[in-house]
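User: quick one, sequence for these tokens?
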């Protein structure tokens, strides 16, 4: 059965609102929520970027059953993997085992702030692999040291560990990162309905859940939905080669100046029609993803939660992994 999550957009809402949304998502029937872990928002106009780990701790106490995840954290750069190992272990304890650690190779937008430079993508993948090794080493208990090509750990120990370590979901957008996820992760994390990424993950030995984010914009009026989606999510149309490299929100403002509302409408479902939203989710399920996190770029959060409960939850749960139902007959 497909599990359904909700993406908490920490770049567009204040920290207290993010925690409220996590609680509301649980009440609406979502299976999990994931929160972005950014130092900067994507766009200067977003206006927010709270500390993900504080919000996760608060959400763990404000909810009872819903899963929690980072979507995703870069465990090197502005962090060291030892800090992420400790943060994830603590969050797993606070949530009674409901936490999944989503990690990826990061974006210059967030990692350049510590002044350590921005490595090439191949180096970042090496650093991501070493980070996973350090995190798992610390989760095994005791004092640990590590000497990698890029990262080191010196006589460190995480004292508060959960009985079962949280799963590690690794973000991928191509064969190399998908192979890394298959070899070193417990799950895959992606943002495009790319069956090739799922296949590469499986070829590398990956057998765990496959997470994906599905952008959409709900509102009672299609034009209103598209207008808000353009305001909140136009950065998503730049693609990962841009998103990983630009250093500041003002750069994203400039890079997205040419993107129109019609471009956003063409890239994601906008408005009140459940069929269009279900079809978008179905493309990800057909590509092999069984954990779909809905990213609502529309103007109303609570209205969307009601729409989800009434129109989307049942049909999405009935979807079959790896099969795309026809638009006309499936729902």
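Assistant:
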């Amino acid at each position: 059965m497909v599990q359904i999550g909700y993406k908490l957009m920490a770049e567009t809402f204040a920290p207290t609102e993010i925690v409220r949304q996590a609680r509301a998502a649980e009440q609406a029937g979502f299976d999990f929520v994931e929160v972005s872990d950014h130092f900067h928002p994507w766009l200067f106009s977003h206006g927010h970027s709270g500390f993900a780990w504080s919000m996760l701790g608060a959400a763990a106490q404000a909810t009872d059953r819903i899963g929690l995840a980072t979507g995703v954290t870069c465990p090197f750069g502005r962090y060291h993997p030892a800090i992420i190992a400790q943060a994830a272990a603590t969050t797993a304890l606070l949530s009674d085992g409901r936490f999944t650690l989503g990690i990826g190779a990061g974006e210059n937008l967030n990692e350049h702030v510590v002044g350590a430079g921005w490595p090439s993508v191949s180096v970042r993948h090496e650093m991501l692999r070493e980070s996973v090794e350090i995190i798992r080493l610390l989760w095994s208990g005791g004092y640990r040291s590590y000497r990698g090509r890029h990262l080191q750990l010196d006589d460190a120990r995480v004292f508060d560990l959960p009985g079962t370590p949280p799963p590690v979901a690794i973000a991928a957008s191509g064969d190399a990162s998908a192979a890394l996820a298959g070899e070193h992760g417990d799950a895959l994390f992606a943002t495009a309905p790319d069956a090739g990424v799922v296949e590469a993950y499986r070829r590398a030995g990956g057998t765990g859940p496959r997470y994906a984010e599905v952008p959409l914009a709900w509102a009672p009026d299609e034009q209103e939905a598209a207008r808000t989606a353009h305001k909140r999510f136009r950065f998503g149309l730049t693609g990962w080669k841009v998103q990983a490299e630009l250093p500041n929100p003002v750069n994203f403002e400039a890079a997205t100046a040419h993107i129109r509302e019609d471009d956003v409408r063409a890239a994601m479902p906008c408005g009140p029609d459940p069929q269009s939203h279900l079809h978008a989710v179905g493309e990800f399920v057909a590509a092999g993803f069984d954990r779909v996190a809905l990213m609502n770029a529309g103007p109303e959060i609570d209205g969307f939660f009601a729409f989800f409960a009434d129109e989307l939850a049942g049909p999405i749960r009935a979807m079959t992994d790896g099969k795309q139902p026809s638009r006309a007959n499936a729902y």
